[in-house]
Design goal:
Rossmann fold, alpha/beta, 6-stranded parallel β-sheet, globular, 16% strand
């Protein structure tokens, strides 16, 4: 698990700007979705992963705890899977051109829908009643990437809790764009995974200072558990 270090100076700046340390701590689970980004074999399974992130396996128990708590409190759970398409070799040529051909080939094989790499990690607590959304870019919210926003709006969702991998790429990109689309957005400090502690913390700090909130799993689960069964059913 990552060693999360948020310098006191960062927290002080957040409080000075927002008036409190956690501006979204009192979220309503009934209008909230847990958004799980890219916890697929393509990033986690040895021999299949094109860009393995060992820490992604470590956060799975926390993601599962959050999913159970969110459902119990009347919230939604959305599992986001990145897909490779041949069309993206043209429409997203800039990204592909920044990789050597062998890496592009391995990425395409790992993220082709229907492949083992495309599948969610087997230990995730994904249920049939959850939401399953495919995205084509790092961010799930940019135009042409996915229909996640329309799905969430149709359910009355206005608050997002972001988990998954990689913290500084797809997770942060999605979280930043979610805020730009007017969602109240929190990144989970121990529910996102990156290659190093330094990269993980840098992404959290940048997001926290300007775009949204950051909180640990325990705090988020505790908030969900404040809802009584009657409140969750309303």
């Amino acid at each position: 698990m990552h060693q999360v270090i948020i310098p006191p100076s960062v927290t002080e700046r957040v409080i000075a700007r927002r008036g409190r340390e956690h501006v979204f701590a009192d979220f309503d689970p009934k209008t909230t979705a847990l958004v799980v980004i890219d916890l697929q074999n393509a990033f986690m399974l040895a021999g299949v992963a094109h860009s393995p992130c060992a820490e992604a396996i470590e956060i799975v128990p926390n993601v599962n705890r959050l999913a159970r708590a969110m459902r119990a409190a009347g919230g939604a759970v959305a599992w986001i899977q990145t897909a490779f398409t041949e069309e993206s070799l043209v429409s997203w040529s800039t990204m592909h051109d920044m990789s050597v051909p062998a890496r592009t080939k391995k990425r395409s094989e790992a993220l082709t829908p229907g492949s083992l790499g495309y599948a969610l990690w087997s230990e995730l607590d994904a249920l049939p009643e959850d939401l399953f959304v495919e995205k084509l870019r790092f961010s799930a919210f940019i135009e042409g990437s996915s229909n996640l926003e329309s799905i969430l709006r149709a359910r009355g969702i206005d608050t997002l809790i972001i988990t998954g991998t990689v913290t500084s790429v797809c997770c942060e990109s999605t979280a930043r764009d979610a805020m730009m689309r007017n969602f109240k957005t929190t990144m989970v400090t121990d529910g996102n995974a990156a290659a190093t502690d330094e990269e993980h913390n840098a992404a959290l700090i940048a997001f926290y200072l300007t775009f949204g909130d950051i909180m640990p799993t325990d705090m988020l689960v505790a908030r969900c558990q404040q809802m009584t069964p009657a409140e969750a059913a309303v």
